[in-house]
Model the fold of this input.
Amino acid sequence: MSTSARFPSASADSNPGPFDPTDPNVFASAQTWVVPPPARRGRPWVNAMLLVLTILTTTGMGALHYAGFRAGFGPATPAFTFSLFLHGLWYSGTILAILGCHELGHYYACRYYRVDASLPYFLPAPILTGTLGAFIRIRDPIRTKRMLFDIGVSGPLAGFVIAVPALVVGLMLSNLAPLPPTFNGLALGEPLLFKGAAWLIWGAEPKGYALNLHPMAFAAWFGLLATALNLFPIGQLDGGHIAYAVLGRRSTLVTYAAVGCAIVLTYFSSSWLVWTVLVTAMLFFFGPRHPQTLDEHVPLDSGRVLVAALALAIFVVCFTPAPIEVIQLLPH
Done:
């Protein structure tokens, strides 16, 4: 999920004298900055409680996914035994590892730059995925584009590093199962990375068969989708931070284009509707312009630009135009 951050109001015009962001002492002498208060300790018990609740909801949903996996594409009527609940950990452990490493990537980047940030907050939900994701709160302003970029990109990279091996192992645990004459269910859109890994492991699917996903593979699929959503170059999403760090004010045009793409995607799949409403509301309440840093006009170094290109490539291989679709096979 995106980070929640505070940024400075760039009112450098009120300072006497010119503002030179390349001056190594600029942050010691800038008059627009107020010394931040001491780091707040937060309430770790809230983080722990939400984590426990999310473990329960994701494990419960994971048990249902495992029962469906064992039933193939036939009807599943699971009896909730302790053994089935334990098998739900295949899903729960995988998705919490991906989301947790994503947020810890942000957290430790903040610690590196001495930016006050909370521990991750996990969001439980009794729905298909068992969670609405996770986020951290960043309580200090982020002063430079380098800091903003490193904090923004560290989460998607960390989550992606966990999602890829989880995807490979999950696909190896999956199997090819025959489709029944009639079938009602959900079809998952396959990102390029998912398609490539499935083809390498299972090859082309025989006619009348489909890949029956192990819960670990489903968790990895959700991790790829969450990574792509966070890398959308919009507002306070990770992709919005990255775009601003690379492009400065020009990132506003990218934000408009990304929101336009989200609106167009709703015509391809209704599963984008909620996401599009959320990002449009974000644009309305927070505005299209990313909050400024003190060094907005200083170009990002070439190494970080290359990492930004890597983040763009990760977005492309994790993106799918139709994440979830309802399918209905009628009898021949």
Observations:
- The radius of gyration is 22 Å.
- Residues 7-36 have pLDDT under 50 and may be disordered.
- The beta strands are 4-6, 121-124, 131-135, 137-141, 175-178, 183-188, 209-212, 324-329.
- DSSP finds eleven helices and eight strands in the chain.
